Structure formats: C-alpha cells, structure tokens
C-alpha cells in the first residue's frame, strides 16, 4: 500500500507539473456592447503573475489567436486575448475582416477605448498582478497596442509585431509612458519609409522609450506561423524566432518584480 500511495502521489505531481495552459472565456461590456475574450494561463503555477493583453490580427479572437497566447503565456504570464470587435463579430476570411478592422482604424477613439477596457478586465483577474501589465499585438493588433501607448496608458510595455505605424491621433508631447518595442518586416510593403520616419519623430516628441527593429526579407505577418497568403502576408521562421525572443526579453525586463 505504501508503494501504491507513493506511485499515486508521483502521478498526481507529474500531472500537475505538466498541466496544459487553460483557456477560459471572459466577457465584459462597454457602452452597452458585449465583448468576449479568452484568458490563457498555466494553472500549475500558483499566485499572481504579470499580465499581457494580446490584441490579435484582423481576424480577431479565434483558435489561432488563442494558440499564440499560449505561446506567449508559458508559465510566466496570464494573457488576455482581447476582443475589440464585439462578441458576435468573428470574421473568418480576409474579405470579412478588412471592413471590420478598417472601421476601427478610422475611429481611433473607439479603438483606444475598447483596448483600454481590455486592460481593465485583465487587471481585475485574481491571477494577475495588476501592477505589472503589458500589451502586444499582431498586424491590426500591433496598430491597436500602439494606440494604447499614444494615449498614455500606464503599461509596463507595449510590443507591436508587424503593425501599422501611422495614426490620425499622434501622441502629445511627453504623453507616452510605456516603453515601446516595434518589430517590423523590412520588406513589408504596408509600412513605408515615411511611416517609419514619422513614427520615430512622433515617439521622440512624445518622450518615449522606444526601439524599432527591422528584419531583412520579412514581409507582413512574418511572426505568425499560420500566415500563408503570399506574397504580402507570409511567415518567416528566422525573423519570427528572433522577434519572439526579443519580445520575451523585453517583457522579462519591463515586467520584472520590483527590487526591494
């Protein structure tokens, strides 16, 4: 019996140690509209940990977005896959996603308000250390998190992966409080040299702590493993590996526990 008990205990411990990340649905409301995101975390880890708001590409909340959140969460972070479209808006094709994303790109105040609400929702989660919150996003999501930085949101950091850089609402002088990391494909035709120069001038004027990285040969969507829409939206393994690593290093820095 003693040996059996030890075996059972070992199996329980092994199961806990290798528990799969959880993906729990989370809903909230803003201006009378319901939004539905997904909270991703490793339930084998106890105690509050830093949180990441992840804004997906223009397809919004779907299985692909949740998988990327799992990759980012690991056993270190709680990730909220943020819904900025609304619970019943789930585009499945580029043709469906384009107009939905464009409507919000053309209405930056609404986009900022919806992203800011997602930050509030993540901060309220019991598993999250509300004093250590950052945000990242892919493509349209990268554009969105940069709007959070421009709006002066008090985040530990913001990362845009192949997001758009231009905005009709540039940051005010000394407005950007969050460190900003932009990971861009050097061959991305949707981001012009003028966009890059304008972004750099804007960030300097806003007093931002910013970094801009260009990956040679990488086009739009380069960091998303399921991007297969050549020639403009294609996964690039080398650039993706470097981008994910740089993002991980950035979050490890800005979300490190405060020193006593």
Please provide a written account of the structure.
This protein has 260 residues and is an alpha/beta fold. It is built from seven helices and ten strands.
**Computed Rg:** 19 Å
Beta-strand level of the residues, as a percent range?
Answer: 15-25%
Classify the oligomer. single chain
Helix count, DSSP H or I runs of 4 or more residues: 7
Largest beta sheet: strand ordering: 1-2-4-3-5-6-7-8
Based on the model shown, name its key terms:
260 residues, 8-stranded mixed beta sheet, two-stranded antiparallel sheet, disordered N terminus, single chain, 7 helices, alpha/beta, 24% strand
Give a nutshell description of this structure.
The chain is of the alpha/beta class. The protein has helices at 2-17, 63-73, 94-105, 108-123, 140-150, 193-205, 237-254; strands at 21-30, 33-42, 49-55, 78-81, 128-138, 158-161, 180-185, 210-215, 228-229, 233-234.
List the helices and strands and how they pair.
Elements: H1 2-17, E1 21-30, E2 33-42, E3 49-55, H2 63-73, E4 78-81, H3 94-105, H4 108-123, E5 128-138, H5 140-150, E6 158-161, E7 180-185, H6 193-205, E8 210-215, E9 228-229, E10 233-234, H7 237-254
Parallel strand pairs: 3-4, 3-5, 5-6, 6-7, 7-8
Antiparallel strand pairs: 1-2, 2-4, 9-10
Helix pairs in contact: 4-5
